[in-house]
Design goal:
Blueprint: E1 12-15, E2 18-21, E3 28-29, E4 32-33, H1 41-71, H2 76-103, H3 106-125, H4 130-143, H5 147-157, H6 160-188, E5 193-197, E6 200-204, H7 209-224, H8 233-239, H9 251-280, H10 284-299, H11 322-335, H12 343-361, E7 365-366, E8 369-370, H13 384-390, H14 394-425, H15 429-455, H16 460-482, H17 492-525, H18 532-556, H19 563-582, E9 589-590, E10 598-599
Antiparallel strand pairs: 1-2, 3-4, 5-6, 7-8, 9-10
Helix pairs in contact: 1-5, 1-6, 1-7, 1-15, 2-3, 2-4, 2-18, 3-4, 3-7, 6-15, 9-12, 11-12, 14-17, 14-18, 14-19, 15-17, 16-17, 16-19
Length: about 600
């Protein structure tokens, strides 16, 4: 038997007075420490610029788009179609551009999408009819479908440790763009000039200025991609945790090899001593049966593996190859299960050989990947329909509903807010820009507050419920204040209070729902399963809501009485929070400050 100093049942290698865990530490790849990868700065700046311009586009277009439509004799329905067309184009072309980048190159897919975005904004700036505005926003939506490629690039060129930092920087740049959009609009408020080139009239005013400015920003971003460095195959493999041939071993690997050699010597000594003691007390018949079974194993071995044995009794069962020790002795144990005199000896040998083979197997490389002797059969990948069937799950469907409702309300609110402020308070583009700056600042504050609360250990479902309560309170206020005749005047403070409370609930839910959804996917699909397929369905819910919300609000603005519009939104919210409370226990996690949340119920 092995002594406590020589055997550790918890899976540890004993080396002197130290215990070295067999489990690979986080940040190691195949037993080797994952090195910090230098980031190509010009490429990173170009990628960050895409997200920045996309958020500037929202803040610079929304304050003026309704007045631009009205100036061309458009209607409220035109506003709904313009905003919905942008989201619809994103929904359709997000997977297509992603597929293009996978099959070709990131540079090619991004540059073409930037050219499309420039074309769309030029059409918007040159519009002479409401249909041209809709067409311009539709084309611009196709160009903005490159947003998903920013995350793809960061995932391809960064390690897991770097990825968190760079994603935080990208989100910070996006937040700056959200605030900068209305500020740019303030700068365009005094713009008023025009000129002719042959028969083409170029007009620069506060209504067309957003299209011109976005075209310039996108063109500058396109020029920056001259210096863009395409991620190589090795960078993508290393970012995914796959070891390449160029990886240099570190001190940790050397220590493991030394520890393995020491353990190998101990294993052979234990085998020899154990066999010697066992054979001394065994009769000749048992020994002959042992030889007979062992020889039968060798003669029936399909792999024709040669095992060298000595004729001496002490070396009768000692293999010369550490790799075959586990296979031979494990099968020998199965063949001799009825021979009671050799059970203890072979059992100890199998345990030691198995322990050693797992450690030794971690050092063996086959091609560009490692062989794992403890798990020689890889897990079969789920099919498309099996992955789709797993999405039919109570907790995941609840996440879909929450995401749909908060995006639907947000899409409807952003469509309603500009016409209402113009009709009720005679706001112009400059006033709307100030209002959107305040709203954008509030959104950013609650996004960072939500992230801070989550890092302190507050469960995602409580943050979502917090957002739902404020969203419902804001919708109730809008119903009370604006749910009557469209011509009824409402004080400005009532409008401001309703919008502020409603806006408090939207970013809180949007930030937490993706975190909750990702953790639920880890529980259902496993920690190592990529989540692109499942996250696509979550984005599908949000995009669909951003299409339907503006359409409903556009038709609701033409109603003489807006009660049906707001009662529908409030009813949708009641259904949303009701489903959330019904499946509340299925969204439960245990969290601790500074630690990742873990699911305890589903």
């Amino acid at each position: 038997m092995l002594t406590p100093e020589e055997e550790d049942g918890a899976g540890y290698i004993i080396k002197g007075d130290e215990e070295t865990p067999m489990i690979k530490e986080e940040g190691e790849v195949g037993g080797e420490v994952e090195q910090e990868k230098p980031m190509h700065l010009p490429s990173m700046i170009s990628i960050m610029a895409i997200g920045f311009i996309a958020n500037v586009e929202y803040g610079i277009v929304m304050p003026s788009v309704w007045q631009f439509i009205v100036s061309l004799d458009g209607t409220n329905n035109t506003l709904g179609w313009a905003l919905s067309g942008f989201s619809l184009a994103q929904l359709i072309f997000l997977p297509l551009i992603g597929f293009w980048a996978d099959k070709r190159t990131l540079r090619e897919a991004i540059c073409v999408s930037l050219l499309v975005g420039i074309s769309g904004n030029l059409v918007y700036a040159m519009s002479v009819s409401p249909l041209m505005i809709i067409a311009g926003r539709l084309i611009a939506g196709i160009g903005s479908a490159n947003m998903a490629l920013t995350n793809s690039y960061i995932a391809s060129v960064s390690t897991k440790e770097q990825r968190t930092r760079y994603m935080a920087k990208v989100n910070g740049i996006n937040a700056i763009g959200l605030v900068a959009g209305p500020i740019f609009n303030l700068a365009l408020a005094k713009l008023n000039s025009s000129f002719w080139i042959k028969n083409v009239h170029f007009v620069f005013d506060p209504l067309r200025g957003p299209g011109w400015m976005l075209s310039v920003l996108l063109f500058l971003c396109l020029i920056s991609f001259i210096f863009f460095k395409e991620p190589t195959f090795n960078e993508k493999q290393q970012a995914q945790g796959v070891e390449t041939k160029s990886t240099k071993p570190t001190t940790t690997t050397t220590t493991q090899q030394q520890s393995t050699n020491n353990y190998s010597e101990k294993t052979h000594l234990l085998i020899n001593n154990n066999n010697s003691n066992n054979n001394d007390g065994a009769n000749n018949n048992n020994i002959n049966n042992s030889d007979y079974n062992y020889n039968n194993y060798n003669s029936n071995n399909n792999n024709n593996q040669n095992v060298s044995r000595s004729n001496s009794r002490n070396d009768r069962s000692t293999p010369t190859s550490p790799i075959t020790s586990m296979n031979n002795y494990s099968k020998k144990y199965n063949n001799q299960s009825k021979a009671q005199s050799n059970v203890n000896s072979i059992s100890n040998i199998s345990s030691a050989s198995y322990h050693f083979s797992i450690i030794y197997g971690q050092q063996i490389q086959g091609g560009d990947h490692q062989q794992d002797l403890a798990n020689p059969f890889p897990k079969r990948e789920d099919t498309f329909f099996k992955k789709l069937f797993k999405l039919v799950n109570a907790s995941l469907l609840t996440c879909f509903l929450i995401n749909f409702v908060q995006n639907f309300v947000f899409g409807a609110l952003e469509t309603l807010i500009t016409p209402i402020t113009h009709q009720q308070y005679n706001f112009d583009t400059l006033d709307n820009s100030v209002m959107y700056s305040v709203i954008s600042g509030e959104v950013i504050i609650f996004i960072f507050a939500t992230v801070f609360a989550a890092n302190k250990g507050i469960q995602d479902k409580y943050l979502i419920l917090f957002g739902q309560v404020f969203l419902g309170a804001g919708l109730a206020m809008l119903l009370v204040f604006f749910g009557g005749p469209a011509t009824r005047h409402v004080e400005l403070w009532k409008f401001a209070l309703s919008v502020i409370i409603t806006t408090m609930g939207i970013p809180t839910q949007n930030t937490s729902i993706y975190s909750l959804y990702s953790k639920l996917l880890n529980r259902i699909y496993g920690e190592n399963e990529p989540q692109g397929f499942q996250t696509g369905f979550m984005m599908l819910m949000g995009s669909g809501a951003r299409i339907l919300g503006p359409l409903l609000a556009g038709y609701g603005l033409d109603m003489a009485n807006r009660f049906p519009l707001f009662i529908f939104c409030l009813s949708l919210w009641v259904f949303d929070i009701g489903v959330t409370l019904i499946f509340w226990k299925k969204l439960t996690f245990i969290t601790k400050p500074g630690q990742k949340a873990t699911i305890v119920a589903h």
